[in-house]
Amino acid sequence: MLDTRKSLDVFSVSTMMVLCLLWGGQQVLIKLAAPQLDPLMQLTIRYAISALILGGYLWYRQGAGLFGDNTVGAGIVVGILVALESIFIAEGLRYSSASHITVFLYTGPLFASFGLHFLRDEERLSGGQWCFVVLAFLGIVITFMGRGDAAQGNTLLGDGLGLLSGAAWGATTIAVRTSALASARPEKTLFYQVGIATLLIFPLTFFMGHSTFEIDGAVVANLTFQTLVLVLGTFLGWYWLLTKYLASRLSVLQLLTPVAGVALGVVVLNDVLDLWFVCGALLVLIGILGVSVLEVLTLRRAGVTSHLASEA
Q1: Residue 273 near residue 233 (C-beta atoms within 8 A)
Q2: Mind listing the pLDDT tens digit for each residue in 270-291?
Q3: What are 21-54's pLDDT values in tens digits?
Q4: Of the candidates 20, 53, 6, which has an alpha carbon nearest to the alpha carbon of residue 241?
Q5: Number of C-alpha atoms within 13 angstroms, CB side, residue 264?
Q6: Three-state secondary structure along the chain?
Q7: Whose CA is closest to 234, among 8, 50, 6?
Q8: Are 104 and 281 in contact (CB under 8 A)?
Q9: Confidence band (pLDDT; 50, 70, 90) for 228?
């Protein structure tokens, strides 16, 4: 079947910039509401509401056949991984800044590319891509340098948890791509993620003593925005773009997200960025960008070769 998806245009680039700005602001919003509502409880609430909305929609569409396929096992796995990612994010934000956590979270695609290289022949990295992977991991090492005193030690712990959240995200991507979920509807995959994560995180918030909260209008507005816009709205926008435009081009633009997250952290929360972190983060972003750009070029060359072969 002929692929009718288009290259990027002004509308798609503008939409992606808005999505990246919203994604980049997630950790900032969590941090803003943290004094009144624990970060882990915030994630639990927004996942629970999202799961109810998605579950109702899927039940309306599929009825009793909702779980009649072979995706349940894989769905539980990705739900567990999302729960781990959420715990690492929430705990990381206790010790580190929103800017740091955003950068480390977005190493997820790097971990995914690394793992998929060994699991799927069609996703093997080229020599040039491996160079950028090494550069990105070097950047990660550099971001952890220069942490001497106790305060920096706490930041180091938070950054380590942020990096683990990126690894969990990468593992989630691998689990989706190598299981029955690879051919499932995206909203069903998201339902598994937020539904299972809710069931796991909710009791954990009480066990860890993070269940206390002070609700006011600002917190309610914050959580409503996180749930309806950041979880559901951006998800729908992203997958709509994927149906219209080439995924490889859109993925490159996703790298604007950590940049937006750092900028918002500095402007809104007055995050302080040390030189080691800035230099390391730049290497991480260059590495991820290099892997993505080389992937786009490879796909473009493959398309040209296929087109020439069909004409021969």
Answers
A1: no
A2: 998 888 899 999 999 999 888 8
A3: 999 999 999 999 999 999 999 999 999 999 999 9
A4: 6
A5: 23
A6: CCCCCECCCHHHHHHHHHHHHHHHCHHHHHHHHCCCECHHHHHHHHHHHHHHHHHHHHHHHHHHHHHCCCCHHHHHHHHHHHHHHHHHHHHHHHHCCHHHHHHHHCCHHHHHHHHHHHHCHHHCCCHHHHHHHHHHHHHHHHHCCCCCCHHHHHHHHHHHHHHHHHHHHHHHHHHHHCCHHHHCCHHHHHHHHHHHHHHHHHHHHHHCCCCCECCCHHHHHHHHHHHHHHHHHHHHHHHHHHHHECHHHHHHHCCHHHHHHHHHHHHHHCCCCCHHHHHHHHHHHHHHHHHHHHHHHHHHHHHHHHHHHHHC
A7: 50
A8: no
A9: very high
Domain positions in the chain: 10-307
Give the tens place of pLDDT for each residue, 67-119: 878 899 999 999 999 999 999 999 999 999 999 999 999 999 889 988 988 98
